[in-house]
User: Which sequence fits this backbone?
């Protein structure tokens, strides 16, 4: 991992809101990622579409909140 | 604005929308019961309400599906005379229906929290789809960082009373970034689950193992024969 989770997070945040960017990504994922200035190894990770790998890039640089137990919001009644 | 979300992208977006936002994740802690954490979340949500402020709470997925604090906060707020409303959103169940192409209307749907399923000896209808939530934290009332293989083995042992051990099940985790990342989908026989790489927040889908039996007498009464 290259530690570019911050850049990736910014890109994903923008992708979630910008419809033109969404369409551009659908039409040309790699070109859109290169246009966004993401590094080669991050682009390779995203193009793999592997959820665990993408989360790992995000976690690596952003740290702090990981996909751990704190996200569980219910527990069984005993 | 108080929130609890698992991914940094959503966290960043929320904080950009409202710089005064605050995450509730710090209320979880090793060795602390989740029920205590949930009670503290409810207090965090209610305190500013009681102080006369407008509060927005955001939880990942659907705020009322497998999310006790949201329901409890709204119930308490209303009991105390404050207006409160929950807005629906997309749960893991909604995602798996779309990602896996499974229609609950086809064969029916049973949905249980996995520990609840075991503790209360729920009997699955093997002619309907079975969805078990939180298989990564079976028997865990506090804090965990990875699934317990021993607990998964207990689950499989129970399921094997009703299903063949080679019956294909699906370990599933929705993608928070559906445009760029695929959901995690592991199709495997029940007996292989304890040794599989099960994510902490995974959901288990057990497809029907048989066709439902027809009640011909009832069909006749309904004019369907």
Assistant:
């Amino acid at each position: 991992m290259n530690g570019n989770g911050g850049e990736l997070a910014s890109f994903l945040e923008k992708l979630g809101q910008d419809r033109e960017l969404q369409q551009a990504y659908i039409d040309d994922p790699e070109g859109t990622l290169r246009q966004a200035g993401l590094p080669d190894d991050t682009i390779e990770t995203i193009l793999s579409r592997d959820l665990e790998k993408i989360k790992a890039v995000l976690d690596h640089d952003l740290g702090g909140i990981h996909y751990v137990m704190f996200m569980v919001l219910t527990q069984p009644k005993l | 604005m108080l929130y609890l979300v698992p991914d940094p992208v959503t966290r960043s977006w929320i904080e950009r929308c409202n710089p005064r936002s605050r995450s509730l994740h710090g209320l979880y802690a090793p060795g602390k019961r989740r029920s205590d954490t949930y009670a503290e979340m409810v207090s965090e949500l209610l305190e500013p309400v009681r102080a006369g402020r407008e509060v927005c709470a955001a939880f990942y997925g659907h705020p009322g599906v497998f999310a006790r604090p949201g329901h409890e906060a709204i119930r308490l707020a209303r009991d105390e005379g404050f207006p409160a409303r929950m807005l629906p959103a997309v749960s893991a169940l909604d995602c798996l229906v779309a990602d896996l192409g499974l229609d609950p209307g086809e064969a029916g749907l049973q949905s249980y929290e996995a520990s609840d399923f075991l503790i209360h000896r729920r009997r699955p209808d093997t002619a309907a789809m079975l969805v078990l939530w939180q298989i990564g934290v079976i028997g865990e009332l506090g804090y965990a960082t990875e699934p317990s293989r021993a607990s998964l083995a207990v689950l499989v042992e129970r399921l094997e009373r009703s299903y063949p051990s080679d019956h294909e099940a699906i370990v599933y985790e929705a993608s928070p970034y559906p445009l760029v990342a695929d959901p995690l989908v592991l199709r495997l026989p029940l007996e292989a689950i304890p040794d599989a790489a099960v994510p902490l927040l995974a959901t288990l889908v057990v497809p029907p193992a048989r066709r439902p039996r027809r009640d011909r007498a009832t069909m006749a009464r309904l004019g369907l024969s």
The mean pLDDT of chain A is 81. The helical segments of chain A are 5-15, 19-27, 29-35, 40-47, 51-62. The two ends of chain A are 42 Å apart (CA to CA).
